[in-house]
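User: Please run a holo structure prediction.
Assistant: Happy to. Please share the sequence and the ligand.
User: Here you go; the ligand is magnesium ion.
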Amino acid sequence: MPSPALGPRVLLRKLREVMAEPEAAQKRLDKTVTLIAGNMVAEVCSIYVMRPGNILELYATEGLKREAVHKSKLKTGEGLVGLIGDQAIGLNLSDAQHHPAFKYLPETGEEIYHSFLGVPIMRGGAVLGVLVVQNRTLRHYTDEEEEALQTTAMVLAEVMASGDLKEMARETAIDVAQVRSHHLRVESLAEGIALGHVVLHEPRVRIQNMIAENLPFELKRLDDAVAQLRNQVDELLDGSDAARATDYSDVLETIRMFANDKGWLNRLKEAVETGLTAEAAVERVQNDNRARMQRMPDPYLRERMHDLDDLSNRLLRILTGAVATASRTDLPQNSIVVSRNMGPAELLDYDRTKIRGVILEEGGKTSHVAIVARALGIPAIGQADGIINLVDTGDEIIVDGSTGEIFVRPTAELQKSYAEKVRFYAKKQARFTALRDLPALTRDGQLIGLNINAGLTVDMPHLAESGADGVGLYRTELHFMMAQRFPRLDAQVRHYRSILEQAKGKPVTFRTLDIGADKTLPYLRQPREENPALGWRSIRMAMDRPALLRLQARAMLIAGAGQDLKIMFPMIADVQEFTQAKAAVMMEHGILKKRGYGLPRNLKIGVMIEIPSLIWQLDSLLPLVDFASIGSNDLVQFLFASDRGNPKLAGRYDPLSPAALGAMRQIVEKAKQHKKVVTLCGELGGRPLEAMGLVGVGLTSMSMVPSGVGPVKAMIRSLDQAKLWAFMEPLLRGPLHSLRGDLMEFAQRNGVEI
Ligand code: PEP
Ligand code: MG
């Protein structure tokens, strides 16, 4: 083989010539394999292309039997080629036939070749095909040869993605070439179904020139770009915002370390020396890293590789002058935005009329962007680790926010069935809209109050749209979470005032700050805790930092001047905490009154029942409160000692169990005894079957996600409450794990709309 440094360069130059020839794609591919075989002194060179159904098809060969072209096919995972395609790894074998994955394809006549070097043809982390060279003798290919083949594969990837193969697929009368379909089931962040096309929040940089004309020039470009990158990172790190947020500065510090990492820089230089332009070299090394990243079992290391990936993207942008983020307005219809992560404001920036779904590699249910997605009614999925590497701008994709599923490049059948689902969903929504102005009255005459949960200004239009009675839970912490720093009094007053204005006279229940556990404020230092859900959070923090609660109370009282105002406290564990918190609000009330401020005409102060200890204090607590609201998300988590955010525990205990429903029943009974209004504001209330169980135990008011109001109202209007309670009562005393099955049966037998 020619000298290792020259080999790939000569090859790349010749490859460019072949590609520029005005010939049919098949012919060009045939010439390509001949060229590679010649350059690498191999007897065989073959190109396999990934086809629909995850099949690798032989598209061109030098050395294997020509008749096998477009006939030989391997499923991913099958044979050596399938293994490369499946795992995105290279294989360098001196005796391929003794490898456990070897599969003999008689039509190719490959039994006489022993040594085998195969590499994935990758683009943006997706495997488009496999490139293989083979020799008769038992030999081990050198590292330089492996490098050279990888560089060649990368150039081929560009050719394949540039449409040549699609053109070829038409010529060969096969349907359009397409890379692998993927199916992921991860975490749903916001309900709903969407079909659309991928928009990468940070678009992938398109490289125009892969092959270097002038090596010293490319090396200089690389050096300059790296210097610029280091400056950028230093600036970011020295920026005052980053310095304050310790978590973020850790990430930047790691990035700075990578930016100065000799190993990485050497690999970039080596890639240029094989004949690539500076940007192609960055992409080449990035592809290797991505492939390594996908195989890495340690999540911490995977995370660090992500950082390196970010850095490569920055470098690519410096070299090509590409923009950093997708256009917010010039979007295709039915856009599904895919991102590693995203702030809520960034999502709000997108043109709402075109964005149909969001997929994040990070992002949990309580992340701010998830909250905004839910508020906007955009289906969203989180924790989709590795999704960015599986997709490209324009790819077809389905987001199923009801199950947490993603289908990348779905088959036509799947698209059809999902389109049907979307139509069905829309029909149902239309039916719920028709119920908007009808009362939530059971068949036996029980009126149920239906309210919405909110936490942002963008939630408020849902109040009128859903026809709900009011806002049963306004989570004030979201405003704090989205701010850059602690909102001052006037900012808080403005915010609460605008919420009350938008409610247009319907009641709003403001909950005081519920910070802690998974809800953190970037500007508030919080100690690391072993069990943050059971830790220093929420009202506990407010007890220790009374100024915080008092400032918030003052803002609410000022905003509510002349109106009805409802305030409630979260995470109360005993009566004393409630009296103390109420005293703080009343002290502010007194001060404002003395200073001559206008005050709410009617102030109601309530408690959230979300810590089980309160169930045994209801007789002393209820006389002191104006109303109570069951926070079933936390109440159920604490009743069962089962972390509400842990996917391993999801579904293990059912809120429709005798224990949970029994607890609710007890609260409802006590509230009746003390003539106090009790409502529920956990997620349960928004799901028709669960809401039916709650109405069954006697609850007459609930607050829920706005999209739950229609379905729950339909359920209520078809339900006989007394009949349901008679059915449930004996079951609640029994040993069942859950009443779910029985309730479903009841609903079906009695025509209750679930
Ligand atoms: C709850 O715990 O049920 C609740 C409504 O509060 P959050 O979900 O905000 O903790
Ligand atoms: Mg709670």
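The longest helix spans residues 143-171.
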